[in-house]
Amino acid sequence: MTAQQLAFFVLAFVAVASALGVILFRNAVYSMLSLIVNLLSLALFFLSLQAIFVATIQVLIYAGAVMVLFLFVVTMLAPEADTNVSGSDRLRWQWVATAGLAVILAGGLILAVANGAVAQDAKAAGPNSLAAQVTKVGNVQAFGLALFHGFSFPFEVTSVLLVIAVMGAVVLSRRFSGRERE
Amino acid sequence: MPDYVPVLILMGLALAFAILVTLVTFVFGPKKPTPEKLAPYECGIEEIEPPRQRFPVKYLTTGMLFIIFDVEAAAILPLAILMRQLKVLGFVELLIFAVVLIVPFFYVWRKGAFTWE
Amino acid sequence: MILASSVFDFTPTAQDWLRILPELIVLGAALLVLLADLAIPAKGRGWLALVGLLGVVAAAVVTAGMWISGDGLTAFNGMIASDKAALFADLVILFAAALGLLFSPGYVERQGIRQHGEYYTLLLLAALGMMLMASAASLLIVFAGLEVLSLALYILSAFIVARPRSQEAGMKYFILSSFASAFLLYGMALTYGATGATALTAIHDFVARHAAPTGDFRPLLLAGLGLMAVGFCFKVSAVPFQAWTPDVYVGAPTSITAFMSVGTKVAAFVALARVFMVALGPVAAAWSPVLWAVAVLTMIGGNLYAVTQRDVKRMLAYSSVANAGYMLVAVVTGTQQALAALLIYLAAYATMNLGAFGVVLALERSDGLGTVLEDFNGLARRRRGLAAVLAVCLLALAGIPPTVGFAGKFAVFYAAIAGGRLELAIIGVLTSVLGMFYYLRVIWAMYFVEPQPARPAPAFVVAPAAPPASASAAASSSTGGVAVAEPRIATTVRADPAAVSVAETPHVVYPGTWLALALALIATIALGILPGALVDLATQAAQSLLR
């Protein structure tokens, strides 16, 4: 077992355990903390795949900013001491159905990977491939070149998405502050 | 990966330093506990209301606006690295990105979501 | 298709920007409206709709110009298409956006929405997202466009502050639709893993070269296809994924419902056609059985649900589910003729559905009530014009001959028979007959039922009658909007006696609404009598996409 494989199995264990923690903790704050661990372990996965930029963004935006927002939401939803989810499941049968479907999906994906589903011919090769570019100019550089050249249009569309998000934040939250209290 | 070895070494040093300092103070520091010292707040102010309660939604608004502009900032990172290589193209593309986003910035400003009440 | 330049040194030219000129105009109009909203005093904000409308009309003119003289190539390194299918979809979306903007000023005022600038900006941005999605030539843009349109619509659905149903609609739509988006994205990621490409042409080439000749579908590709199908089926509200549709359509502002019921369908179906019929066409054997089953379920389920509804707005929501089933028939058939039929049906659905929702919007009271079937009793005597428009649009939805609805249904079923899907055509025709029942029931109420003279509170309790029907609908739509809504209706009426008198004094229908209704009516009848032009345009569009 190489060091990389060892790192993978440790990370995989942490990622799965923390993902389970997100849905199994009864206390919402614990779930959030578990999610942070999960996002951080994903960042390490990206790092082990040599995707430095994605790993950085994962930590900066997801594990950092988005999680702060999640915690705000939890503290806003859960007043006076009781952040525990109580009451029984009304839809217990959905648990069974979901578990069954999840097993099927996971099994299918494992089968797909085991069969070598990512065909070698599907991987881009040649002078214009990502791999060639990464070795030529470096990791973040290759990403940036692709972002500002070939993928410039999706990049610009993102700005429209952000415009809508800004307006949504203001429209949906400000009327509460006027109505709710204070 | 070798490029990042110094970073890893630095991280290890930082972690080791933090653990070391905590350990040293824990081992060598004098320990004379009294009930007052073990209380969460030593400064003596009685709590007025229970600290666990709802956050006002304004924190959330600020947080959301922060994330949105944070994502925008993330796009600048590759541009900063490729500044010389991209020349005018990168500048123009980020300009378009920023011009589209400056409109909601003015919007948020005028609506007063940046002000605290 | 060989890309002229690689991902790493492609540089956009003026040509690229020209090919997305309609989208740019809509974006410009949206930002202009937002800025104008900040600059002008609150009183003049009704004019913002006009600014938006001018933008939409300008974009439509440019789109028409591109139809005649555009080069029809993709822009931005194969990211976005400007072929005739994209332009056709753009025109239908812009038509829906224009009518949505015309419906809005009066409705917005009546519902007490004060955030005009945000409302019109988000409507225009939603239209932009729809146009992007319909023109996407890459999975990335399919997803980006979908997110732009969905995010704008979540906010718009929750726009009426004082109405809990609107809040509920926004929340439900947001949670469920985000979930479906995640499915779609997961499917795209797996498809990318299996084919090594996000550009639709590259996916097509890979699939045609490797999977199709051998019949050896890689499990990863199959998983990707399945997850993408789930995402798309949710967005077009096909039956196993339809639960959100009635609650969102009823709760959202009706002007938004009218716009999104049409626009989202056009965008999602054209994108579905691009991804499944065109890019994944060579492996149709892998996905068509799934969509076949979904189409059958949707046609039967949508119509059965619609029959049990007493609220006309809710009935129209389920009718949109049923119509998604007919459109799926065209997708499953998969021939070029079927693609043309799909486009014809989308255009037909746009005109008649906008008209029907427009009348409901004009009748809806400021508390969001007044759309139950009983409220339509004797409408022909009180509101002759509105009743006539609604009657024509419902006849069209039912597929009665001299309207565009018949042309659409005929095209789809004919294409299905020609493409060897006789069984789907038969199920479609049978369920259409079932559909006539609930459309004609409203017309019957409007023209042949006496209105109740006074409207005391018990009259509303009649609304949720037919307990077995509504109970079954409630049970299967997971949260049971009907059952939940009933007590609220009753209490509202009792608590607020003014509401009863509001029902009796009809409010003014705004000129903009009349104009929009007239446009929808003219289009419904004119395209029904002379469908040749529509068929011709749709055939050209289909030829540009599927050779």
Can you walk through the features of this model?
The complex is a heterotrimer of chains A (182), B (117) and C (547). Chain A is mainly α and 182 residues long. Chain A has a domain at 1-78: Four Helix Bundle (Hemerythrin (Met), subunit A) (Up-down Bundle), CATH 1.20.120.1200. Chain A is built from 7 helices and no strands. The radius of gyration of chain B is 25 Å and the shape is flat. In chain B, 16% of the residues are buried. In chain B, helix 3 (57-86) runs antiparallel to helix 4 (88-111). With 117 residues, chain B is mainly α. Chain B has a single domain (2-111), classed as Methane Monooxygenase Hydroxylase, Chain G, domain 1 (Up-down Bundle), CATH 1.20.58. Chain C has 547 residues and is mainly alpha-helical. Chain C has one domain (17-451, 508-545). Chain C has a two-stranded antiparallel ribbon with strand order 1-2. In chain C, strand 1 and strand 2 form a beta hairpin. Chains in contact: A-B, A-C, B-C. Chains A and B meet through helix 3, helix 6 and helix 7 of A and helix 3 and helix 4 of B.
User: Greatest contact pair?
Assistant: A-B, 46 and 46 residues
Portion of residues within helices of chain A = over 70%
What structural class do you assign from the helix and strand content of chain A? mainly alpha
- At the first level of CATH, the class of the domain at 1-78 in chain A is Mainly Alpha
Q: How large, in whole angstroms, is the Cα Rg of chain B?
A: 25 Å
Q: SSE order of chain B in H/E notation? A: HHHH
At the fold tier of CATH, the topology name of chain B is Methane Monooxygenase Hydroxylase, Chain G, domain 1
Helix content of chain B: over 70%
- Which band does the percent of strand residues of chain B land in? under 5%
Architecture per CATH nomenclature, i.e. the level-2 architecture of chain B: Up-down Bundle
Question: What is the percentage of strand-forming residues of chain A?
Answer: under 5%
Termini separation of chain B comes to 49 Å
